Amino acid sequence: MIARKTHGLIAAAGLALWMGVMPGSAAAGASDVSQVLIKDFMFAPAQLRIKAGSSVTWVNQDDEPHTVVGDGGLFRSGALDTAMAFTYRFEKPGTYQVFCSIHPQMKATIIVE
After folding, report:
1. What are phi and psi of 63, to 5 degrees?
2. Domain that holds residue 35
């Protein structure tokens, strides 16, 4: 019962993050947070251009778990079940390669200006 309740809370928090609403904080503006959907075993968009200091939120819309991993170990999400999300803030300009460690054919590029 507790595990089911915890999973529901995690899913609800992921959905709230995906919608740009977090309890106790103001929703970030469109220029601060970009979204990448995980759907059909792909990251969409597969390439995203953002400004330094912006965050990217990945939201899993598949029925299978996925991860979000930055090349070189910069960041790594845990397994994201359906409707769960992961956010990372990119502070420095550069080109970042992202992949799913469960399904390594899933790749994306984040370009930070």
Report:
1. -85, -5
2. 2-23+30-112
From CA 49, how far away is CA 85, in angstroms rounded?
A: 19
As given in the structure block, the two tokens for residue 21 are 């609403």
CB 14 within 8 A of CB 84: yes
- 109's enclosing H/E stretch is strand 107-112
Structural domain count, the chain: 1
- Global pTM reads 0.73
Whose CA is closest to 81, among 1, 4, 20, 2? 4
- Tell me: pLDDT of 48 over 50: yes
For the segment 56-82, the average pLDDT, to the nearest whole number, is 97
CATH classification of the domain holding 38: 2.60.40.420
**How far is it, in rounded angstroms, from Cα 111 to Cα 25?**
27
